[in-house]
Design a protein that fits this description.
Blueprint: H1 2-20, H2 25-36, E1 41-52, E2 55-66, E3 70-77, E4 85-88, E5 93-97, E6 102-106, H3 119-128, E7 133-139, E8 142-150, E9 160-166, E10 172-178, E11 184-195
Antiparallel strand pairs: 1-2, 1-11, 2-3, 3-4, 4-5, 5-6, 7-8, 8-9, 9-10, 10-11
Length: 207
């Protein structure tokens, strides 16, 4: 009887310790990685700050992405360029200036700085990079996992990307584009992030 009680007490202690144990950085990274690999599309409000020297410019976009490389970027603010659109369907791009009601189509659209602000392109770079790192930290009072990956091309001004992911629901929180001196060039905050949103193909074409 005493032996049985001892075993029960030991089991309770083991279960309590296991339940109270916080997941390691490696476990959190694995869970975040698994969730991010499930992204096939998303829609979010992206608040972007651009840093050049001592100057800072702020923008707000409605950002949509569909795997593997389709995206739609619509300016919400500032008002001077509100409504401007950039659409890329994987082959061709359309740029629409709402203020002058003109649209340009480009069949040979090279990688732009705007693409670097999309989670989809971060994932592409992350998958292809052999020099990615991760760690956990608190972000605005929330537990988060931070993944850093190099950008292809070796551009000293856009050298690497750093993504903060919520440690509980694994949604993206912030993305930084930094130079080779680890100075932030672009900072993106994601709000109202809708993972695997149903997006019509028509959103990625413009007549």
């Amino acid at each position: 009887m005493r032996l049985l009680k001892g075993i029960l007490v030991l089991l309770v202690v083991v279960i309590s310790i296991t339940a109270c144990r916080k997941p390691s950085d490696e476990e959190k990274y694995y869970d975040a990685h698994k969730k991010m690999m499930e992204i096939k599309s998303y829609q979010t409000i992206a608040k972007i700050s651009s840093y050049t020297g001592d100057s800072k410019r702020e923008y707000e976009f409605n950002q949509m992405f569909q795997y593997p490389d389709k995206y739609r970027l619509e300016v919400i603010s500032p008002n001077s360029i509100k409504g401007n659109l950039t659409i890329f369907n994987g082959k061709a791009a359309w740029i629409q200036h709402a203020t002058i009601n003109q649209t340009w189509k480009m069949d040979n659209f090279e990688q732009s700085k705007e693409q670097l602000m999309f989670i989809g392109y971060f994932l592409k770079n992350f998958i292809n990079s052999e020099n990615s790192t991760y760690h956990s930290e608190s972000f605005k009072g929330r537990d988060s996992i931070v993944i850093t990956t190099e950008l292809p091309g070796g551009n000293p001004h856009f050298y690497s990307q750093r993504l903060w992911i919520d440690g509980k629901n694994f949604t993206p929180l912030r993305l930084n584009i930094v130079d080779n001196q680890d100075k932030v060039r672009f900072e993106v905050y994601y709000e109202d992030f809708k993972m695997n949103a149903e997006l019509s193909e028509d959103l990625f074409y413009l007549d």
